[in-house]
Design a protein that fits this description.
By secondary structure, the chain is an alpha/beta fold. It has helices at 16-24, 44-61, 75-87, 100-110, 193-196, 225-230, 240-256, 258-279, 304-316, 341-358, and strands spanning 5-6, 67-72, 92-97, 114-120, 144-147, 149-150, 155-156, 168-171, 188-192, 203-208, 284-285, 296-300, 319-320, 331-334. The structure holds pyridoxal-5'-phosphate (PLP).
């Protein structure tokens, strides 16, 4: 078996020990006589699996008791609609425009109410996190929305914005569980699993309880957070297998030492790549230094033919999915939790050789 180093932005790598354990338990989970995929979501065994996953997530992230953890479907993209449908109680919210995922969230929110874009980095292809001028923010807004880590552009907020009493809502899809986060600073966090948590098909929403139960009247039952909160994410069939694998990922994270240990490894990996990019006169990172993401690292050579060649040769060397997003071009290395340090070292060694051979 030759596993590649997969630098995809998502779906992306899962930790090998997690895949191995899932594979051992694939045909028969415990002594249940069946696969997790075949179990009734109402069975005792499955009830334990989902409860264990939630308990581990609460432990690993130190989620305060007054927050609900919901396992939802529809991708992070459905949250772009569910957030305004549930939280826009007076009909207006502040948004920061830091890239395509923020833009899509803004477009959906505009269908529900009034969106005030308080800051934007669109002028420089979203290559930085803009300052948020206090006077642009509405103290009466129903919530303040950010995309914490911008998967496509490789930028990340370096600190949690202070929004006073306005609840902060953050799309953390591509930085979920990458470092400790003070959940109490947020009204709500959500993450599609396939970036940094588990398989595609499940979205985790962590919501302060007082924000639940004020949804717009007449919205579909399935789009109301209260439906899912009241039914422990079991109003309908949840994505059972994906949640099970998320639980295995959390066990793996815990065995490594939790989020502070994970953050140290992620900082080490990112430093290896950024230090090389900063020292190279051939490759160049596209993001302003003080806005850099630990998870997604876009870079360019500045010559489309050489970039194509780089991506092709890297793939042949087992370093796959390095092509940048079509809106940025060049390359992007996504180095989520499951990417080992050796994978980043292998990438940098390959880049050095490519630089020498093609300069
Ligand atoms: C991938 C991604 C999304 C979209 O996720 P889906 O699950 O495909 O809907 C939204 N926000 C961010 C930050 C992402 O990285």
């Amino acid at each position: 078996m030759a596993r590649v180093y997969n630098f995809s932005a998502g779906p992306s790598m899962l930790p090998l020990p997690v895949l191995e354990r899932a594979s051992r338990e694939m045909v028969e989970y415990g002594s249940s006589g069946q696969s997790v995929m075949e179990m009734s979501h109402r069975s005792r065994e499955y009830g334990e699996i989902i409860a264990h996953c939630e308990a581990l997530l609460r432990e690993v992230m130190a989620i305060p008791d007054n927050y609900k953890v919901l396992f939802l479907q529809g991708g992070a993209s459905l949250q772009f609609s569910m957030v305004p449908l549930n939280l826009m109680t007076t009909g207006k919210a502040d948004y920061v425009l830091t890239g395509q995922w923020a833009k899509k969230a803004i477009e959906e929110a505009r269908k529900v109410g009034q969106v005030n874009v308080v800051a934007s980095s669109q002028d420089k292809t979203y290559s930085y996190i803009p300052n948020i001028p206090r006077e642009a923010c509405d103290p009466q807004a129903d919530y303040f929305y950010i995309c914490y880590n911008n998967t496509i552009y490789g930028t990340a907020f370096q600190e949690v914005p202070d929004t006073g009493s306005v609840p902060l809502v953050a799309d953390v899809s591509s930085c979920f569980l990458s470092e400790p986060m003070d959940v109490s600073r947020f009204g709500m966090l959500f993450a599609g699993a396939q970036k940094n948590f588990g398989p595609a098909g499940v979205v985790v929403a962590i919501i302060r309880e007082d924000l639940i139960g004020h949804a717009r009247e007449g919205i579909p039952t399935m789009l109301d957070y209260k439906t899912h909160a009241d039914n422990d994410s079991m109003f309908n069939t949840p994505p059972t297998y994906a949640i099970y694998v998320c639980g295995l990922v959390l066990e793996w994270l815990k065995s490594l030492g939790g989020l502070s240990a994970m953050a140290a490894i992620n900082r080490e990996k990112a430093a290896i790549l950024y230090d090389y990019l900063d020292s190279s006169s051939f490759f160049r990172g596209t993001v302003e230094r003080n806005s850099r993401s630990l998870m997604n690292v876009p870079f360019v050579i500045g010559d489309a033919d050489l970039e194509k060649k780089f991506i092709r040769e890297a793939e042949a060397a087992g370093l796959v999915n390095l092509k940048g997003h079509r809106s940025v071009g060049g390359m992007r290395a996504s180095i989520y939790n499951a990417m080992p340090v050796e994978g980043v070292r292998a990438l940098v060694a390959f880049m050095k050789k490519f630089e020498t051979d093609n300069r």
